[in-house]
Specification:
With about 190 residues, the protein is mostly beta strands. The protein has a single domain, classed as Sandwich (Immunoglobulin-like), CATH 2.60.40.200. Helices cover about 0% and strands about 35% of the residues. It contains no helices and 10 strands. A 6-stranded antiparallel β-sheet has the order 1-2-3-4-5-8, with no helix packed on it. A 4-stranded antiparallel β-sheet has the order 7-6-9-10, with no helix packed on it. It is globular, with a radius of gyration of 16 Å. Bound molecules: copper (II) ion. The site of copper (II) ion has 6 residues, from strand 6 and strand 9.
Length: about 190
């Protein structure tokens, strides 16, 4: 379990999505907080082919709060995306890389022994971090995932991927956890 009040270091990294700054916010009582923030540059590989879904100037910010009760409260804010549109979003295990695949699979608290994981027993919003977001008329939006657990030591995810469409739950909407193309990525120091 994560230790409350843990201090964090300031780190600066550059990835294919542009300059990324991870900055520790001032400690707040009983909570540990991290933030990842970056401009969103669409992946333009053959695996995507839909760069128009992430306009120039779009940005994402992810905040994570680990409270003393053992919860994780993770929020995603996006700006400058297409208006009135739902995007899928999840925490992924690897950092952002040269294409959407570099971020690897979804973070799972209990890891599905089968990969890719489309078993709703594993690919669900309790075992993963789902941050699907619907934008307003200005192309801005926010979402929140609250979990009654915290990342095990050494097993925290490293990024959030913005996807083409709402995350499926394994019914008629599609295989559990799938959300279409990987459009863009933001590194997060979870
Ligand atoms: Cu994803």
């Amino acid at each position: 379990m994560r230790t409350a009040h843990a201090s964090r270091v300031l780190a600066i990294a550059t990835v294919t999505t542009g300059a990324v700054l991870f900055a520790a916010s001032p400690s707040i009582a009983g909570a540990d907080r991290v933030r990842g923030e970056a401009p969103l540059t669409p992946y333009s590989t053959a695996a995507n082919g839909k760069p128009e879904l992430v306009p120039d100037g779009a940005k994402a910010r992810v905040d994570a709060v680990y409270n003393a009760a053992g919860d994780s409260i993770i929020t995603l804010h996006v700006t400058g995306l297409l208006p009135n549109r739902t995007y899928g979003a999840h925490a992924h295990v690897n950092k952002c890389g040269i294409d959407g695949n570099a971020a690897g699979p979804h973070f799972q608290l209990a890891t599905d022994p089968v990969s890719p994981s489309v078993d709703p027993g594993f690919a669900n919003p309790v075992n993963e971090i789902w941050l699907d977001v619907t934008t307003n008329a200005a192309g801005n939006g926010a979402s929140l995932a609250k979990q009654a657990w915290q990342f095990p030591p050494g097993k925290a995810p490293k990024s959030v991927i913005i996807h083409e469409k709402r995350t499926a739950t394994g019914g008629p909407d599609g295989a559990a956890g799938t959300a279409g193309a990987r459009l863009a990525c933001v590194d997060v120091g979870f």
